[in-house]
Amino acid sequence: MAASRESRPTPPATLAVVRLAILLGALAFGGVAWYVRRQPDWTASPAVNDDAFFFATLGIWATATVGLMILRTRWQRETDPARRTPLMITGWALGEIPALWGGVLYLLGADPQRYLTGLLFLVMAFLLLPLRPARPRG
Predict the structure, then answer these.
(1) Rounded CA gap, 132 and 44, in Å?
(2) Mean pLDDT highest for which of 28-37, 42-51, 74-83?
(3) How far is Cα 3 from Cα 6, in angstroms, rounded to an integer?
(4) To 10 degrees, what angle do helices 51-77 and 113-128 make?
(5) Are 129 and 72 in contact (CB under 8 A)?
(6) Biggest alpha carbon distance in the chain?
(7) How far apart are the C-alpha atoms of 44 and 109, rounded to whole Å?
(8) What is the rounded average pLDDT of the residues 52-68?
(9) Do the beta carbons of residue 91 and residue 15 sit within 8 Å?
(10) DSSP string, 85-121
């Protein structure tokens, strides 16, 4: 006889630690990129402004946008809190990808706008997939 596995929701404090780790990782990477760029012997990569990087950035932003929309819809429809947790963590990680990509481009020599835009994706992921669902009005 197979043992039934009871699914329990992850405590909000644990999920808050996961969110904080994701955010601090993205901010630390941006901080390292900023520090490295300030070194006197640092030189920008000439390839960072190529069309390939531009189109890769657009692709990453589009994928993150569509992915977050899909995960938000699934998260809203899910009634079991234990099944919402993987959707939230996946969405947060999906929001982190543009921030890290922007950090890579910033480290290579691009303007910081792509990194800052990536951080906005991460914040949007946190807002679209909150730790606790909003209470119904009424």
Answers:
(1) 43
(2) 28-37
(3) 9
(4) 10
(5) yes
(6) 67
(7) 4
(8) 96
(9) no
(10) HHHHHHHHHHHHHHHHHHHHHHHHT--THHHHHHHHH
DSSP state of 112: T
Separation between Cα atoms, residue 43 and residue 28, nearest integer Å: 21
**Angle, to 10 degrees, between the axis of helix 81-108 and the axis of helix 12-37?**
0
Has this prediction a pTM greater than 0.85? yes
The predicted pLDDT at position 21 comes to: 97
Chain segment 71-126, per-residue pLDDT in tens: 999 999 998 888 999 999 999 999 999 999 999 999 998 889 999 999 999 999 99
| CB atoms inside a 10 Å sphere around CB 30 | 21
Determine the angle formed by the axes of helices 12-37 and 113-128, rounding to 10 degrees: 180
Nearest alpha-carbon partner for 15 in 136, 137, 133, 117: 133
